[in-house]
Amino acid sequence: MTLAARNALVTGSTSGIGLATARALAKEGANVMLNGLGDAAAIEKLRADMAAEFGVKVLYSGANMLKPDEIAAMVAEAETTFGSLDILINNAGIQYVAPVDEFPIDQWDRVIAINLTSAFHTMRAALPGMKARKWGRIVSTASAHSLTASPYKSAYVAAKHGLTGLTKSVALEVATMGITVNCISPAYVWTPLVEAQIPATMEARGMTREQVISEVMLDRQPTKQFVTVDQVAASALFLCSDAAEQITGSNLVIDGGWTAQ
Fold first, then answer.
1. In 11-84, which ranges are E strands?
2. Number of domains in the chain
3. From the candidates 60, 96, 152, 156, which is the catalytic residue?
4. Residues β-bridged to residue 35
5. Which domain holds residue 121?
6. Does the pTM exceed 0.85?
């Protein structure tokens, strides 16, 4: 498979799943715009190293995924600089863990905005160009929590359920236009986001770190193993390929058997 001459935007791509996906796309020849948080010098080194390693153009946008105007400007910059935006990977995400009656309102708003609403804004901005060129791939990182639920994660579960609905709806709108729209639902992937959940879960449930990992995170994952970022990236890469042109409106579940139960 080659994605030479294709141009991609991957949100939340300075670490974790997003970075692995951006690297996978670049390895196949796609130009990539990175987006995410981190130290400016470290991000610039990451950008330059990726461009040198894979021989593609690599851009970076610091667009705040809470701000629709910045999201629209990021998509426009990718279109203008690359000449097109062919692949959109919605990966930006945050988590907050608390009982619903104690859930801070501002945290609810942030989780919904970044995990769900930002995908609406990126799709809305990217689709006109994809429609004009009659080709596009949109892949969003959902979660096993798009199909099931866990306590203390009301905002995250609501957002990921919403993301699958958004995916299905948009897929039907553009089904005859050469554009596919899918999402990927991994179970627990060992990333900075997941690691950061551990202290809050320890406090909420009165558990040790080891108990959170074994009794919460991997409890419902029959393989008892974390999904890897490279496994998720490989799945996104497949959904961007010509082999997947008849896969749209789908939710590709990578959960070690979690939702089979």
1. 31-35, 58-61
2. 1
3. 156
4. 61
5. 7-188+228-256
6. yes
pLDDT at 204: 86
What CATH number did the domain enclosing 62 receive? 3.40.50.720
When the pLDDT of each residue in the chain is averaged and rounded to a whole number, the result is 96
Could you give the CA distance from residue 4 to residue 159 in angstroms, rounded to a whole number?
A: 33
Catalytic status, residue 156: yes
Residue 215, in any domain of the structure: no
Contact 31, 57 (CB under 8 A): yes
Residue 213 lies inside a defined structural domain of this protein = no
Dihedral sign (CA 50, 51, 55, 59): positive
Assess if residue 205 is contained within a domain. Answer: no
Tens digits of residue pLDDT in 58-109: 999 999 999 999 999 999 999 999 999 999 999 999 999 899 999 999 999 9
pLDDT category of residue 227 using cuts at 50, 70 and 90? very high
